[in-house]
Protein backbone atom coordinates (compact mmCIF):
# COMPACT_ATOMS: atom_id res chain seq x y z
CA UNK A 1 0.00 0.00 0.00
CA UNK A 2 1.34 3.42 -0.96
CA UNK A 3 0.16 6.76 0.34
CA UNK A 4 1.00 10.35 -0.54
CA UNK A 5 -0.17 13.21 1.63
CA UNK A 6 -1.58 16.54 0.59
CA UNK A 7 -0.28 17.95 3.87
CA UNK A 8 1.72 16.07 6.49
CA UNK A 9 4.56 16.60 8.95
CA UNK A 10 5.76 13.09 8.11
CA UNK A 11 6.34 12.43 11.81
CA UNK A 12 4.22 10.01 13.85
CA UNK A 13 2.83 10.97 17.24
CA UNK A 14 0.50 13.86 16.34
CA UNK A 15 -3.25 13.27 16.07
CA UNK A 16 -3.58 16.32 13.81
CA UNK A 17 -1.34 14.68 11.18
CA UNK A 18 -3.95 12.90 9.11
CA UNK A 19 -1.47 11.11 6.90
CA UNK A 20 0.29 9.56 9.88
CA UNK A 21 -3.08 8.70 11.42
CA UNK A 22 -3.93 6.74 8.30
CA UNK A 23 -0.58 4.96 8.23
CA UNK A 24 -1.07 3.95 11.87
CA UNK A 25 -4.60 2.68 11.15
CA UNK A 26 -3.31 0.43 8.39
CA UNK A 27 -0.45 -0.79 10.57
CA UNK A 28 -2.91 -1.54 13.36
CA UNK A 29 -5.06 -3.54 10.93
CA UNK A 30 -2.00 -5.47 9.76
CA UNK A 31 -1.22 -6.32 13.39
CA UNK A 32 -4.74 -7.20 14.54
CA UNK A 33 -6.95 -8.20 11.58
CA UNK A 34 -6.33 -11.42 9.65
CA UNK A 35 -7.77 -9.87 6.48
CA UNK A 36 -4.72 -7.58 6.34
CA UNK A 37 -1.94 -10.04 7.10
CA UNK A 38 -0.51 -9.71 3.57
CA UNK A 39 -0.59 -5.89 3.53
CA UNK A 40 2.47 -3.68 3.76
CA UNK A 41 3.04 0.09 3.86
CA UNK A 42 5.39 1.60 1.25
CA UNK A 43 6.09 5.32 1.63
CA UNK A 44 8.57 5.70 -1.23
CA UNK A 45 6.44 8.11 -3.31
CA UNK A 46 6.69 11.56 -1.71
CA UNK A 47 5.84 13.73 -4.73
CA UNK A 48 4.04 13.51 -8.05
CA UNK A 49 7.15 15.19 -9.47
CA UNK A 50 9.11 11.99 -8.77
CA UNK A 51 10.80 11.03 -12.05
CA UNK A 52 10.22 7.37 -11.16
CA UNK A 53 6.48 7.86 -10.45
CA UNK A 54 5.31 5.53 -13.22
CA UNK A 55 7.71 2.72 -12.34
CA UNK A 56 7.00 3.01 -8.62
CA UNK A 57 3.27 2.83 -9.24
CA UNK A 58 3.77 -0.14 -11.55
CA UNK A 59 5.13 -2.10 -8.57
CA UNK A 60 1.93 -1.44 -6.58
CA UNK A 61 -1.70 -2.54 -6.80
CA UNK A 62 -3.05 0.00 -4.28
CA UNK A 63 -2.34 3.72 -3.84
CA UNK A 64 -3.58 5.75 -0.85
CA UNK A 65 -4.16 9.46 -1.56
CA UNK A 66 -4.76 11.58 1.53
CA UNK A 67 -7.15 14.54 1.39
CA UNK A 68 -5.98 17.71 -0.31
CA UNK A 69 -5.08 20.43 2.18
CA UNK A 70 -2.85 22.01 -0.45
CA UNK A 71 -1.97 21.35 -4.06
CA UNK A 72 0.53 18.47 -4.31
CA UNK A 73 3.91 19.08 -5.89
CA UNK A 74 4.14 17.87 -9.48
CA UNK A 75 0.41 17.41 -9.98
CA UNK A 76 0.26 18.27 -13.68
CA UNK A 77 -0.96 16.75 -16.93
CA UNK A 78 1.89 14.24 -16.99
CA UNK A 79 1.37 12.87 -13.48
CA UNK A 80 -2.41 12.96 -13.92
CA UNK A 81 -2.11 10.73 -16.98
CA UNK A 82 0.29 8.38 -15.20
CA UNK A 83 -2.13 7.93 -12.28
CA UNK A 84 -5.21 7.52 -14.49
CA UNK A 85 -3.46 4.96 -16.69
CA UNK A 86 -2.29 3.05 -13.62
CA UNK A 87 -5.85 2.80 -12.28
CA UNK A 88 -7.21 1.89 -15.71
CA UNK A 89 -4.77 -1.03 -15.88
CA UNK A 90 -6.58 -2.70 -12.97
CA UNK A 91 -5.29 -1.05 -9.80
CA UNK A 92 -7.01 0.74 -6.91
CA UNK A 93 -6.80 4.35 -5.75
CA UNK A 94 -8.33 5.13 -2.34
CA UNK A 95 -8.77 8.82 -1.57
CA UNK A 96 -9.92 10.50 1.61
CA UNK A 97 -11.65 13.87 1.62
CA UNK A 98 -11.85 17.08 3.61
CA UNK A 99 -13.90 20.26 3.49
CA UNK A 100 -13.63 22.23 0.27
CA UNK A 101 -13.15 21.40 -3.39
CA UNK A 102 -9.49 20.32 -3.61
CA UNK A 103 -10.34 16.61 -3.40
CA UNK A 104 -12.94 16.63 -6.16
CA UNK A 105 -10.66 18.87 -8.23
CA UNK A 106 -7.89 16.26 -7.83
CA UNK A 107 -10.14 13.44 -9.05
CA UNK A 108 -11.65 15.53 -11.84
CA UNK A 109 -8.17 16.47 -13.08
CA UNK A 110 -7.02 12.85 -13.13
CA UNK A 111 -10.08 11.15 -14.58
CA UNK A 112 -11.96 13.86 -16.49
CA UNK A 113 -14.98 13.62 -14.17
CA UNK A 114 -17.37 16.37 -13.05
CA UNK A 115 -17.64 15.70 -9.32
CA UNK A 116 -18.75 18.47 -6.98
CA UNK A 117 -18.48 19.00 -3.23
CA UNK A 118 -21.59 18.66 -1.03
CA UNK A 119 -20.52 19.25 2.58
CA UNK A 120 -21.66 16.76 5.23
CA UNK A 121 -24.64 15.41 7.16
CA UNK A 122 -25.18 12.02 8.76
CA UNK A 123 -25.39 9.47 5.96
CA UNK A 124 -27.05 6.04 5.85
CA UNK A 125 -25.57 2.98 4.20
CA UNK A 126 -27.02 2.28 0.76
CA UNK A 127 -28.07 -1.32 1.31
CA UNK A 128 -28.95 -1.94 -2.34
CA UNK A 129 -25.61 -0.67 -3.62
CA UNK A 130 -23.44 -2.31 -0.94
CA UNK A 131 -25.00 -5.77 -1.32
CA UNK A 132 -22.32 -8.17 -2.54
CA UNK A 133 -19.53 -5.58 -2.20
CA UNK A 134 -16.71 -5.09 0.31
CA UNK A 135 -19.04 -2.73 2.20
CA UNK A 136 -21.87 -5.22 2.69
CA UNK A 137 -22.94 -5.35 6.34
CA UNK A 138 -20.88 -2.32 7.33
CA UNK A 139 -21.92 0.47 9.72
CA UNK A 140 -25.49 1.67 9.18
CA UNK A 141 -24.51 5.34 9.42
CA UNK A 142 -21.53 7.66 9.03
CA UNK A 143 -21.51 11.01 10.78
CA UNK A 144 -19.43 14.17 10.56
CA UNK A 145 -16.79 13.75 13.29
CA UNK A 146 -14.60 16.57 11.95
CA UNK A 147 -13.76 17.81 8.44
CA UNK A 148 -15.85 15.79 6.02
CA UNK A 149 -16.99 16.28 2.46
CA UNK A 150 -19.68 14.37 0.59
CA UNK A 151 -19.67 14.46 -3.20
CA UNK A 152 -22.16 14.65 -6.02
CA UNK A 153 -21.06 11.99 -8.50
CA UNK A 154 -24.34 11.70 -10.40
CA UNK A 155 -22.64 12.86 -13.62
CA UNK A 156 -20.19 9.93 -13.57
CA UNK A 157 -21.83 6.77 -14.89
CA UNK A 158 -19.40 4.44 -13.12
CA UNK A 159 -20.09 5.92 -9.64
CA UNK A 160 -21.83 3.81 -6.99
CA UNK A 161 -22.74 5.48 -3.68
CA UNK A 162 -22.07 3.20 -0.70
CA UNK A 163 -23.32 5.61 1.96
CA UNK A 164 -25.84 8.17 0.78
CA UNK A 165 -26.87 8.62 -2.85
CA UNK A 166 -25.08 9.51 -6.07
CA UNK A 167 -26.09 13.17 -5.56
CA UNK A 168 -24.85 13.20 -1.95
CA UNK A 169 -22.37 10.37 -1.31
CA UNK A 170 -20.26 10.05 1.83
CA UNK A 171 -18.50 7.02 0.34
CA UNK A 172 -18.44 6.17 -3.35
CA UNK A 173 -16.78 3.58 -5.57
CA UNK A 174 -15.94 4.26 -9.22
CA UNK A 175 -14.78 2.01 -12.03
CA UNK A 176 -12.13 3.41 -14.33
CA UNK A 177 -11.07 1.03 -17.06
CA UNK A 178 -10.17 -2.20 -15.27
CA UNK A 179 -9.46 -0.41 -12.00
CA UNK A 180 -11.25 1.14 -9.04
CA UNK A 181 -11.35 4.47 -7.24
CA UNK A 182 -12.71 4.51 -3.68
CA UNK A 183 -13.65 7.89 -2.20
CA UNK A 184 -14.07 8.27 1.58
CA UNK A 185 -15.33 11.74 2.50
CA UNK A 186 -13.53 12.18 5.83
CA UNK A 187 -10.07 13.58 6.62
CA UNK A 188 -9.21 11.11 9.44
CA UNK A 189 -8.29 13.80 11.93
CA UNK A 190 -7.65 12.37 15.42
CA UNK A 191 -8.00 8.75 14.29
CA UNK A 192 -4.55 7.25 14.83
CA UNK A 193 -3.44 4.18 16.78
CA UNK A 194 -0.46 3.69 19.07
CA UNK A 195 1.63 1.69 16.63
CA UNK A 196 4.87 2.51 14.80
CA UNK A 197 5.64 5.43 17.10
CA UNK A 198 2.17 6.98 16.74
CA UNK A 199 -0.39 7.49 19.54
CA UNK A 200 -3.98 6.50 20.24
CA UNK A 201 -6.32 9.29 19.12
CA UNK A 202 -9.84 9.73 20.43
CA UNK A 203 -11.69 9.17 17.12
CA UNK A 204 -9.90 5.90 16.28
CA UNK A 205 -13.03 3.80 16.89
CA UNK A 206 -15.34 5.93 14.77
CA UNK A 207 -17.21 3.97 12.04
CA UNK A 208 -15.27 5.98 9.46
CA UNK A 209 -12.22 4.05 10.71
CA UNK A 210 -13.56 0.66 11.76
CA UNK A 211 -16.05 0.24 8.92
CA UNK A 212 -15.67 2.64 5.98
CA UNK A 213 -11.87 2.68 5.85
CA UNK A 214 -11.35 -0.94 6.86
CA UNK A 215 -13.73 -2.21 4.19
CA UNK A 216 -12.51 0.30 1.60
CA UNK A 217 -8.97 -1.03 1.98
CA UNK A 218 -10.23 -4.47 1.01
CA UNK A 219 -10.67 -3.23 -2.56
CA UNK A 220 -6.89 -3.78 -2.80
- CATH class reads Alpha Beta
Q: How many alpha or pi helices?
A: 6
Helix/strand order: EHHEHEHEEHEEEEEH
Kindly, what is the distance between the CA atoms of the first and last residues, rounded to a whole number of angstroms?
8 Å
- The CATH topology corresponds to Rossmann fold
Please, what is the average pLDDT?
92
Explain what this protein looks like in three dimensions.
- The chain has 6 helices and 10 strands, in the order E-H-H-E-H-E-H-E-E-H-E-E-E-E-E-H.
- The protein has helices spanning 18-32, 53-58, 77-88, 102-111, 127-130, 207-217; strands at residues 2-4, 62-65, 92-96, 116-119, 123-124, 141-142, 150-152, 159-165, 168-176, 179-184.
- The chain is an alpha/beta fold.
- The strands form 3 sheets. A 6-stranded mixed β-sheet has the order 1-2-3-10-9-8, with helices on both faces. It has a two-stranded antiparallel sheet with strand order 4-7.
- It has one domain (2-217): Rossmann fold (3-Layer(aba) Sandwich), CATH 3.40.50.12140.
- Residues 1-7 have low confidence and may be disordered.
Topology:
Elements: E1 2-4, H1 18-32, H2 53-58, E2 62-65, H3 77-88, E3 92-96, H4 102-111, E4 116-119, E5 123-124, H5 127-130, E6 141-142, E7 150-152, E8 159-165, E9 168-176, E10 179-184, H6 207-217
Short account of what is shown:
With 220 residues, the protein is α/β, with parallel strands linked by helices. 26% of the residues lie in helices and 20% in strands. The protein has a single domain (2-217), classed as Rossmann fold (3-Layer(aba) Sandwich).
